[in-house]
Every structure is written in C-alpha cells, then in structure tokens.
Amino acid sequence: MTDLRELSLRLEGQEPAAILRAALEAYPDAALACSLGLEDAALVHMASLLPRPPRIFVLDTGRLHPETYDVLAALRRRYGLPIEIYFPEAAAVEGFVNANGPNAFRESLELRQACCRIRKVEPLARALRGASAWITGLRRDQGPTRGEVRLFEADPAHDGMVKISPLLAWSLEQVRGYVRDQHIPHNALHEQGFPSIGCAPCTRAVAEGEDERAGRWWWERPEHKECGLHPARPEPGGGR
Ligand code: SF4
Q1: pTM value?
Q2: What is the DSSP string of 45-76?
Q3: Ligand 1 atom at minimum distance from 198 CA
C-alpha cells in the first residue's frame, strides 16, 4: 500500500506537471475533476501533454455562469479530450426546488449544503465510482479551509480514496502566469474580479485585497465556505 505521507514529502517542491505525472504512475485510474476554474484549466492542459491523459470530468450543477459553459466548450475544442459531464439527479433537484424554492441556498446553511449535496456531492460520488484516486486543483493559499491539505491524502469524504492536489504549492499568481503563458482557455469572469468561480447565484466578484474565496457564499462565515466536495479539515484543536 502506498505511503501517502512519504509520497507527499518526496514530491513536495516539484513542478505540478511532474507531480501529476508521478500521481498517474502511482494511480493510473485517477480521475481529474475539472471545475472549469483557472487551476483545473491548467491541469487539463498538463494532462493533455501526457502520453496517457487521465479521465476528466465536469460537474454541471445547472446553475453555472454562461461564461463557464464557454470554457467547457473551449477546452473540449482545444484539447480534443473526452471531457465527461455529470448532471444532478433530475428528481432530486425537482423535489428540492419544489419544496424550498429556486434560491433556497440563501435562507440557511442547511439548505445551502442540501443544494450542494444534490447538485455537486452526489454527482461527484457517481463520477468517482470505480476510481482509486481523484485529482483536484486545490491550492494551500486559497483560504482558511485549505491550509492543511497535503499533495496526497486519504479522502474521508470518499471512503478513503486518494485525493491528489498537484497545484497545492502554487499561488494564484503562478496559476495565472501559467495559464497566460500557455494560452490556456479560461473563464472570462477571471478578468472581471472573480478569482474563484462556482455556481452563478453563489459567486460574486471580490474587491482588491479580499480573500480570493470571499466571493463564494459571501453571506456565510469563512469556515463554512466549502460545498462538500472538499470538506473543511478539522482544526488541530478538534473543532471545524
Ligand atoms: Fe446550489 Fe449554490 Fe451549491 Fe451551486 S453553489 S450547488 S447553487 S448552493
């Protein structure tokens, strides 16, 4: 069994493309979860350069910005890779919206998390079925919920499968520079003050100096700003 801590330490400090290559040697069936953000566009580009790119998938929540669909179309065109698209279960969305209204996520944390469960968490579980690992675009400096993430770690939210984050050590500026230099298709909203982009009704632009995830679920407390795909890690003291 692979020692994830040892693997993380061994690859720490290497370039993300090298980490991705090593990750796929260790986990050939790993799937790349593409959120269509800047980081994942960079990972799709790196994956496209490999002799055997990983499976790539997107979660279409049904509430994305039009600009985000443009990125999906542009990535498919540019790389010609079979990017799979997963939708939420129609009956679950219908039931939730009929019971709670179309914008219930603003009413309480519970309703917001329920919406994320239906539109993101359940489709993600389906997309990951059968894989031993998944690749994400997480970075350490994205905010208070992500500082403790390691390059390779067991993901308790997905039965301990391995979560791999090749861009962990990169800053937002490094990702921006890479996307610019490699002419990688990316979301037009990034140029309009959106460093982090999720569903349209739950994302706003951030002001100069604000945390880069401040525009996600901006009405909630910072420690709640995860959608269930990457649950916040317990603080060293045991709390969340
Ligand atoms: Fe629902 Fe907002 Fe979560 Fe999207 S981000 S799934 S709209 S609560």
Answers
A1: 0.89
A2: HHHHTSSSPPEEEEE--S-B-HHHHHHHHHHH
A3: 5
Q: Which two tokens stand for residue 175?
A: 């990702």
Cα 95 to its chain centre, rounded Å, is 26
C-alpha 116 – ligand 1 centre gap (Å): 5
Digitized pLDDT (tens) for each residue of the chain, 240 residues in all: 679 999 999 999 999 999 999 999 999 999 999 999 999 999 999 999 999 999 999 999 999 999 999 999 999 999 999 999 999 999 999 999 999 999 999 999 999 999 999 999 999 999 999 999 999 999 988 765 555 789 999 998 888 899 999 999 999 999 999 999 999 999 999 999 998 899 999 999 988 888 888 888 887 877 666 666 666 554 333 222
Give the atom of ligand 1 at the shortest distance from the alpha carbon of 105.
8
**CATH code, 4-224:** 3.40.50.620
Ligand 1 proximity of 61 Cβ (cutoff 6 Å) = yes
